[in-house]
Structures are given as C-alpha cells and as structure tokens.
Design a protein that fits this description.
The complex is a heterodimer of chains A (about 70) and B (about 300).
Chain A (H helix, E strand, L loop, with lengths): L1 E5 L3 E5 L4 E2 H7 L7 E5 L2 E3 L4 E2 L4 E6 L7
Chain B lengths: L11 E3 L4 E3 L1 H18 L8 E5 L4 H12 L3 E8 L3 H18 L3 E5 H5 L3 H8 L3 H19 L4 E3 L4 H13 L3 H6 L3 E2 L7 E3 L7 H10 L16 H15 L3 H20 L6 E2 L6 E2 L5 H17 L7
Parallel strand pairs in B: 3-4, 3-6, 4-5, 6-8
Antiparallel strand pairs in B: 1-2, 7-8, 9-10
Helix pairs in contact in B: 2-9, 5-6, 7-10, 7-11
Classes of the chains: A mainly beta (about 70), B alpha/beta (about 300).
C-alpha cells in the first residue's frame, strides 16, 4: 500500500501487508498524539485496519513558531 | 470505534477526554470548546470587532473559520514576513481562504515597509530569526488593530503552544513571562486586548478539524523553526501525553487555575510610556521594535563602509 507522510516534509513509501493504524504509526515511530491518519481520503481511528491497495495519508499536527 | 453521541462510525478518538466522535460531532465538539473558552474567559462579546491574526497555518485559519461561522465580526490580518518561498505560499493560502469566504483581509509586507524581511533582519542584527519574528508580529499586530479600530486581537495559539511555552518558562524560571502567560491579555495603555480562544484544543484536534472542514493550510514547517526549542518542548510533552493522556491539559489548566496568581503577585506592573521614535507603548525610551530596526540599519551602515565582514 502507498503511504504518504507529511511530517511535515512530504515523503512517500510502500508497505506490504494488512495492519492496524495504531501499529502502522508504531512501526513508523510516529506519535499518535501528534498525527492523524486518512485512509482513501477519510480520516480513521487507530483501531481501523489498513489493507493492501489502500492509499494512506499521515499528517503531522505539530508546527513550529508562533501562529 | 463508534461515535459516543450518535453511534455512527467514529473518525477520531480523543484519549484525553476518552471520547470518540464522527465528523459531525467532532466539529460540533471543537466549536463548543471555542465558544466555551470565549465565554468563560470573557474574551470578547458579539458586538466587538475581532482582528484574527492569520499566518496561513492550520490554527489561525481554523480559528477564523470558527469565529466567522459563529457570527462574530471578524477580519484577518496577515504579516508577509519575507521568509522566501514559505512566506509566499503562506500569503497565497491566506488570500485564497479569505477570498473563498468573502472575508476582509489586511496585510503588512515587512520587506516593503522596512527594507528587509525576517531572514534579512536576522542576518543584519545577528539575532535569531524567531526572536525578531515574534517581536515584529506582536508590534505590527498591535499597531494594525489600534489603527483599524479593532477591539480585540485573536491568535491561533493552541494547547500545545501554550503548554510548550509554560514548560520553557518553568524550566528557565522566567517569572515575568509566567506572570503574563494567560489566554487573555487585557488592554492597556496603547495595547489592544489579545486573546487565544484555542488554548484548550490540541494541535492534533486542529489538524483534524482542518481536514474534516476542508480548510487548506500550509503544511510545511517554517524553515527558521527547524530545531527550535519550542518544538523540542512540544515533542517532550507529547511523549508524556502518549503515556499519560490529558497531561498537557492538566499542566496548563493547573497553572492557569492555581499557580498563576503566585507569579502575578511577584511581578511588578511595568510603567509604560510612548516610544520616542514611533509612539507605541514601551518601558524604555525606545521600544524593542525600533531598537531592533535601528540596530539593523546601524550594522548595515557599518558593513557598507567595509569595517566589519558581512554577517
């Protein structure tokens, strides 16, 4: 499956195999408190499954500097 | 996971509240949190004119979106900082947001007005870019609000920003800063009231809200913020939050409810006067903004004469 990560720089990677969102974040060493995950364009909770063929986007929430 | 209020499929789980929400109920939850903060902290009323400081990032755009949706009289104020392509993209996104909603947007271009952008200013003064940037923003926001007749300035500082600032202030025992850290900074001589309606909402909640409401924002980091201490503090706090949900909220709320009074008592209220160069409020003869820009001019003049190498 294709994973697009904005953390905050954009990068893409390919991962094989079904897994939960929570496990994917752990595998990528991304803190679940600072990231949100969208599967095929829809935001999902950490207990959801990611299947082969899904498009996944991981967005980092942390920004630097004062707004 | 199912949404607590309606039982539909949840899109977000907020561990600090042990709450799961679908899109509709999450948006509603955030809107209510903002409304509650405004009311509880008496930030502003329905008839007041609110100037929203908008950078093009998620927090300030979400804030503007929520306030205009709630029916407040708002206009945006964007400072074009002159940090290369990053500032140009931030300006485009901010303008597109305002145009799509038919909202009024005021702008100041630092480089056009003062001859240098933030990156150039940092080189000219030898001061860290973030320090000059913050100083410029505070000064320009206050001046713009007063000149344009706004009652209040609203900024997009969220729970992560405030908790990180608090951690930095405590680690360094900045008692003066601790005494001033509050979601409402009252109006004073020459100062417009400043408020932070998102102070109890996390960055993750803001990013989720922007995504769910279709708010386009600049994702990339300010190039000057790479390695910034504030990000270190945020990451540290979020590691604690991951292990102990609700820690950031308890840390900030505990300080605001309990400790702040202590620091306020220890801090003397400064005596303000008008800056002799620009007339803005200051504790010295010259305000920090004028000192900074005069320093930049002086260094430039010295460099132009060839006395010292360029920074």
């Amino acid at each position: 499956m294709k994973i697009c990560i904005r953390s905050p720089q954009y990068r893409e990677l390919e991962i094989e195999g079904r897994r939960r969102v929570e496990d994917l974040l752990k595998e990528l060493r991304l803190n679940r408190e600072t990231h949100i995950v969208a599967r095929n364009g829809e935001m999902v909770t950490e207990d959801e499954w990611i299947e082969t063929g899904d498009e996944v986007e991981i967005i980092a929430a942390i920004s630097g500097g004062a707004p | 996971m199912k949404c607590h209020p309606c039982g539909r499929k949840a899109v977000i789980y907020l561990r600090q509240h042990n709450a799961r929400y679908c899109r509709e109920h999450f948006v509603n939850f955030v809107d209510r949190q903002v409304a509650r903060a405004i009311k509880r902290k008496r930030m502003f009323g329905p008839d007041e004119k609110v100037m929203v400081a908008v950078s093009g990032g998620k927090d300030s755009l979400v804030l503007w979106h929520i306030l205009q949706k709630a029916g407040y009289h708002t206009a945006g104020y964007h400072i074009h900082l002159g940090i290369g392509e990053y500032s140009l993209r931030s300006l485009d996104i901010t303008r597109a947001f305002a145009a799509a909603k038919g909202l009024e947007l005021f702008e100041t271009d630092v480089e056009s007005e003062y001859g240098l952008g933030i990156s150039g200013l940092a080189k000219a003064t030898g001061r860290p870019a973030c320090s000059g940037c913050g100083l410029n923003k505070r000064y320009l926001m206050n001046r713009a609000a007063r000149e344009k007749g706004f009652d209040v300035i609203a900024t997009g500082h969220n729970l992560d920003d405030e908790a990180a600032t608090l951690l930095g202030n405590v680690l360094n025992w900045q008692t003066g800063s601790l005494s001033r850290q509050n979601p409402v900074l009252a109006a004073g001589k020459g100062f417009t009231r400043r408020v932070k309606p998102l102070y109890m909402l996390s960055e993750r909640e803001m990013a989720a809200y922007a995504l769910l409401e279709g708010i386009r924002y600049i994702h990339e980091e300010c190039p000057n913020a790479v390695g910034a201490r504030s990000i270190e503090y945020k990451e540290t706090l979020n590691r604690i939050e991951d292990a102990m949900p609700g820690s950031k909220m308890r840390f900030l709320k505990g300080f605001l409810d309990l400790d702040r009074a202590t620091w306020q008592a220890e801090s003397d209220a400064p005596v303000l006067r008008e800056c002799e160069a620009c007339g803005e409020p200051t504790v010295n003869n010259l305000c920090a903004f004028c000192c900074l820009w005069r320093g930049a001019e002086r260094n430039k003049a010295v460099r132009d004469r060839g006395s010292v190498p360029a920074v």
